[in-house]
């Protein structure tokens, strides 16, 4: 079933639609000539069921105990890169804890954690070039962090303060940074996918060897936009990596209620897209898969689909309480038995690159960094109110000018009921 469809430099086996094709016993002229199909005649009346195929295997490099089972698959990232990845994963984890709690205290409006999915973020991000373009869904904070998004920028975005790139117009965790080639997150599911394919088509025409990576959840893959994106990417042969984080849930809907086929990777061959399934809790497997996918995109100018299997340990967001629909034991299993951070730590300890003292020191240091940037973000003023009305149009149209003027009139009368001092320049404007 599996066929090596990549070039010699790649290490991975991808499943392609060609694998389903057999030409045994059919002379070329006797083959069906229908446009849109490349198959053979059969005298056997048989429906093809997804259960006729064994599920696509899960590519793994590192065992749960942190050992590499096949040395040939070792990406040999070295101590410096592995330590950087580990520090990134744990820093994200610490930031998630602090910001989750801060929402509970009413200090920010909303938050989404990435607990348990850190391996998918850092393994894939480390495999990309800096000028590859990233489209995310919303749970990919580690990807933008790896590309250079500072803790302070993340805090400023979550507080929607005067230094927030989005000028306070987005919900928290909707990061974006043009300089880091990371398109701003937008909440409506799957909208990023057709946009990402359009960008990849542009890259193809440019011919500079750049690729797009587009992250999405397995839940988002049920949206119509995902179909449109996969089919456009396949037919236009765009250099894009579709990176699906299959974390088991779309809010409260488990995967068992989301689809009946072989996950998301299983759909790839139907679109004519080379596809692979990886252990998303194995940062090395994710890294290798993304490197191979990137090479394939550039060399073949075609899309690739990666399905990274993982588990959402946290609640969907601060608006969710997952104890209502899953057991504590289920969550505990992933937290204690199959966590990407502890697996990488075991690997580092076996190598002699990490120990308890280093862990303690890093924990203190990283927590301090998070808390310092958090406090700084909280103290900053909110952007000027006028920013709420700007930037959609080059010049503010009359109806928006009218709304803004009405808002200012209202605030002049009722200013004592509003946190006027928290907004840049507002007190002066109202006086
Ligand atoms: C078009 C649309 N429909 C519904 C929602 C509400 N919604 C937000 S996140 C989500 C679940 C998405 O699950 P998945 O894609 O698996 O990502 P995960 O949250 O698991 O990372 C839903 C239904 C939305 N944001 N947009
Ligand atoms: Mg999901």
TrEMBL record:
<keyword id="KW-0630">Potassium</keyword>
<comment type="similarity">
    <text>Belongs to the BCKDHA family.</text>
</comment>
<dbReference type="InterPro" id="IPR001017">
    <property type="entry name" value="DH_E1"/>
</dbReference>
<dbReference type="GO" id="GO:0005759">
    <property type="term" value="C:mitochondrial matrix"/>
</dbReference>
<keyword id="KW-0479">Metal-binding</keyword>
<keyword id="KW-0560">Oxidoreductase</keyword>
<keyword id="KW-0496">Mitochondrion</keyword>
<comment type="function">
    <text>The branched-chain alpha-keto dehydrogenase complex catalyzes the overall conversion of alpha-keto acids to acyl-CoA and CO(2). It contains multiple copies of three enzymatic components: branched-chain alpha-keto acid decarboxylase (E1), lipoamide acyltransferase (E2) and lipoamide dehydrogenase (E3).</text>
</comment>
<dbReference type="GO" id="GO:0003863">
    <property type="term" value="F:branched-chain 2-oxo acid dehydrogenase activity"/>
</dbReference>
<dbReference type="GO" id="GO:0046872">
    <property type="term" value="F:metal ion binding"/>
</dbReference>
<keyword id="KW-0809">Transit peptide</keyword>
<dbReference type="InterPro" id="IPR029061">
    <property type="entry name" value="THDP-binding"/>
</dbReference>
<protein>
    <recommendedName>
        <fullName>2-oxoisovalerate dehydrogenase subunit alpha</fullName>
        <ecNumber>1.2.4.4</ecNumber>
    </recommendedName>
</protein>
<dbReference type="Pfam" id="PF00676">
    <property type="entry name" value="E1_dh"/>
</dbReference>
<dbReference type="InterPro" id="IPR050771">
    <property type="entry name" value="Alpha-ketoacid_DH_E1_comp"/>
</dbReference>
<dbReference type="GO" id="GO:0009083">
    <property type="term" value="P:branched-chain amino acid catabolic process"/>
</dbReference>
<feature type="domain" description="Dehydrogenase E1 component">
    <location>
        <begin position="87"/>
        <end position="383"/>
    </location>
</feature>
<keyword id="KW-0786">Thiamine pyrophosphate</keyword>
């Amino acid at each position: 079933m599996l066929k090596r469809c990549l070039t010699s430099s790649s290490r991975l086996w991808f499943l392609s639609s060609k694998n389903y094709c057999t030409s045994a016993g059919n002379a070329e002229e006797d083959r069906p000539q229908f446009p849109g199909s490349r198959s053979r005649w059969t005298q056997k009346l048989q429906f093809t069921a997804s259960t006729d195929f064994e599920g696509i295997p899960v590519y793994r490099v590192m065992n749960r105990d942190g050992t590499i089972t096949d040395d040939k698959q070792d990406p040999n990232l070295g101590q410096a890169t592995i330590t950087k990845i580990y520090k990134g994963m744990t820093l994200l984890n610490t930031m998630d804890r602090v910001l989750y709690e801060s929402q509970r205290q009413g200090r920010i409006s909303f938050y989404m954690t990435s607990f348990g999915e850190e391996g998918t973020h850092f393994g894939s991000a480390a495999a990309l070039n800096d000028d590859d373009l990233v489209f995310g869904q919303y749970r990919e904070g580690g990807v933008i962090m790896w590309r250079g998004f500072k803790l302070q920028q993340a805090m400023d975005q979550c507080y929607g303060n005067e230094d927030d790139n989005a000028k306070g117009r987005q919900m928290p965790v909707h990061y974006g940074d043009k300089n880091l080639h990371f398109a701003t997150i937008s909440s409506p599911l799957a909208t990023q996918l057709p946009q990402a394919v359009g960008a990849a088509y542009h890259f193809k025409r440019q011919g500079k060897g750049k690729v797009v990576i587009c992250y999405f959840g397995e839940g988002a893959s049920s949206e119509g936009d995902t179909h449109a994106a996969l089919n456009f990417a396949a037919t236009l042969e765009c250099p894009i990596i579709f990176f699906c984080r299959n974390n088991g849930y779309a809010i409260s809907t488990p995967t068992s209620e989301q689809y009946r086929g072989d996950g998301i990777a299983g759909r790839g061959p139907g679109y004519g897209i080379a596809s692979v399934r990886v252990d998303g809790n194995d940062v090395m497997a994710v890294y290798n898969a993304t490197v191979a996918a990137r090479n394939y995109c550039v060399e073949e100018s075609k899309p690739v689909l990666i399905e990274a299997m993982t588990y959402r340990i946290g609640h969907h967001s601060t608006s969710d309480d997952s104890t209502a629909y899953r057991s504590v034991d289920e969550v505990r299993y992933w937290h204690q038995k199959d966590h990407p951070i502890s697996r990488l730590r075991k690997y580092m300890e076996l190598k002699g690159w990490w120990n308890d003292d280093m862990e303690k020191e890093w924990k203190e240091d990283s927590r301090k960094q998070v808390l310092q940037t958090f406090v700084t973000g909280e103290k900053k003023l909110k952007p000027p109110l006028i920013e709420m009305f700007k930037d959609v149009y080059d010049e503010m149209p009359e109806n928006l000018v009218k709304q803004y003027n009405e808002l200012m009139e209202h605030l002049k009368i009722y200013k004592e009921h509003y946190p006027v001092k928290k907004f840049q320049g507002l007190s002066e404007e109202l006086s």
